[in-house]
Design goal:
Blueprint: H1 5-21, H2 27-32, H3 40-52, E1 56-57, E2 66-67, H4 69-77, H5 87-99, H6 104-119, E3 122-126, E4 135-144, E5 147-154, E6 159-165, H7 172-186, H8 191-196, H9 206-224, E7 229-232, H10 234-239, H11 241-245, H12 247-258, H13 260-266, E8 277-280, E9 292-299, E10 307-314, H14 319-339
Antiparallel strand pairs: 1-2, 3-7, 3-10, 4-5, 5-6, 8-9, 9-10
Helix pairs in contact: 1-3, 1-4, 5-6, 6-14, 7-9, 12-13
């Protein structure tokens, strides 16, 4: 249910003021600001209602209010996401493109640093990841009587392994037959085509079905691994009042970027149509980030050379600047990848 207009305006004012000051906002400060032609008592009642509804918090009973997760989400929902990025960002990024117009990896490294310094947050960008290479070879190695390792070799010498716990004991001839059949099915086919056929109904042999599913799972995992990631702004992130007050939480949040599996999960929901994703607090898929906000935008989907631009910061962040910044950087990279 949408908030009444006056209550929504008060909430927006408090969130905006708190983002700027990092200090609780009193009802008197709201009442004394331009645009509220009502009494302090009315403001206090509206603020009290916002607290009860979960949009605001009071750190202490006698203090002013600070935004809760719901308050930040309401604030972001009211932003114009088509607003232009900061002029400084446009100038700096364009300058880097002019210096290295054909070196996307170099541009990505510099862009991460520019964004981190401009926003004062932890920025990350993954280099565009080209289309998955075809399968070159499949091997099945017996580990124990009922345990087999699938070894998946791709054309670019990438190797992925997956352990299969067999439903029944089989001999080497049966393993070889299953390997040959699955190899014939995957050779020369793209990952998306194979994933679409994951639940094949034409497989009658149980062993072949197990090997097929393990192969598709390994391909899906290989396809989800992002390109090389570049990060910048660790100092900005840890010097924020929120991270400085709880450095252990800040370090845990950064671990989501440094751990391969955690990072892959973090960006798993990104689309590649230049639509930004804003995850606030418990919206985040990674528990290490439940006290932070993550803004991400994908690029390169049109030519299947996918990458991600993102920011991690405390929930108290300048969304009105951060979201257009991330989106513009992704759009710029998108144009470079498409041109290249």
């Amino acid at each position: 249910m949408p908030l009444p207009e006056r209550r929504s305006t008060i909430l927006t004012f408090i969130v905006d003021d708190y983002i700027s000051s990092a200090l609780p906002v009193s009802s008197n400060a709201v009442a004394n600001s331009a645009g509220f032609n009502v009494s302090s008592a009315t403001i206090r009642n509206e603020v009290g209602a916002l607290v009860e509804e979960g949009y605001l918090l009071r750190p202490h009973s006698s203090s002013g209010a600070v935004p809760a997760e719901m308050g930040y989400r309401h604030f972001v929902g009211g932003l114009d996401l088509t607003s232009p990025p900061p002029e400084g960002l446009v100038t700096m990024l364009q300058r880097q493109i002019d210096v290295a117009p054909d070196d996307i990896d170099a541009w990505v490294r510099i862009a991460a640093s520019v964004i981190a310094d401009l926003i004062g947050a932890l920025a990350f960008i993954t280099a565009p990841r080209v289309k998955m290479p075809d399968v070159k070879q499949i091997e099945l190695l017996r580990l124990q009587d009922m345990l087999v390792m699938l070894v998946l070799v791709l054309q670019e010498a990438r190797v992925y392994r997956r352990v299969i716990e067999l439903d029944q004991n089989v001999n080497d001839s049966q393993l070889e037959q299953a390997r040959n059949k699955v190899t014939a099915e995957v050779s020369g086919k793209g990952v998306r085509e194979l994933v679409a056929r994951k639940d094949r109904e034409d497989i009658e042999d149980d062993l072949e079905r197990q090997v097929w599913h393990a192969t598709i799972d390994a391909l899906m995992h290989a396809d989800s691994v992002p390109g090389e990631r570049y990060m910048s702004g660790f100092g900005h992130f840890m010097s924020d009042p929120e991270s400085a007050a709880q450095p252990a939480k800040g370090a845990l949040a950064m671990s989501a970027l440094e751990n391969d599996d955690a990072f892959t999960e973090l960006i798993s929901g990104v689309t590649y149509r230049n639509q930004p994703i804003v995850s606030i607090g418990t919206d985040n898929i990674r528990p290490e980030l439940c006290d932070y906000s993550v803004i991400m935008c994908g690029y390169g989907g049109e030519v299947d050379a996918r990458g991600v631009v993102g920011l991690i910061s405390p929930m108290r962040t300048a969304y009105g600047t951060s979201i257009p910044t991330v989106t513009f950087a992704a759009e710029t990279l998108d144009a470079m990848v498409n041109r290249g």
